[in-house]
Write the structure tokens for this entry.
Amino acid sequence: MGRPLRRSHGSGDEEDQVTGGRGRTRLEGSVCRGCATVAFPPAQTCRRCGGRETTVTELGTQGTLWAHTVQRFPPKSPPYVPPADGFRPFAVGYVELPEGIKIEAILDCDDVDELVAGAPMSLVATEPVPRFAPVRTEEER
Ligand SMILES: [Zn+2]
């Protein structure tokens, strides 16, 4: 119980922690042992039933866009750290995961117009905050 899922894949080098882009990016949440409510970020106390028995679980990295907006001014800093070359507007929104929860994330895209509710999104990074990008279709532009 509470043991991390182990997948033998030959090399044994499956312990990719969070990577900035290369390799597999993992998103960890928690699941309540009492009522199976999933939370992100991981919570020690279930916000639905108040149970204190939660286990860390790996969340899906593919989701769908639920809602978004464009951040056109720099957020309060700290915690926001502006990029070295200055602030540029970026998209933020909620991505609904297969587990049924919606998580707030920065949305990577070239054109905000490609962000539509229900669009498939893929996790690209988790640090310092979750970051999703639209799933590219076959025809790249
Ligand atoms: Zn619960």
User: Anything to note?
Assistant: Residues 32, 34-35, 37, 46, 48-49, 51 surround zinc ion (CB under 6 Å).
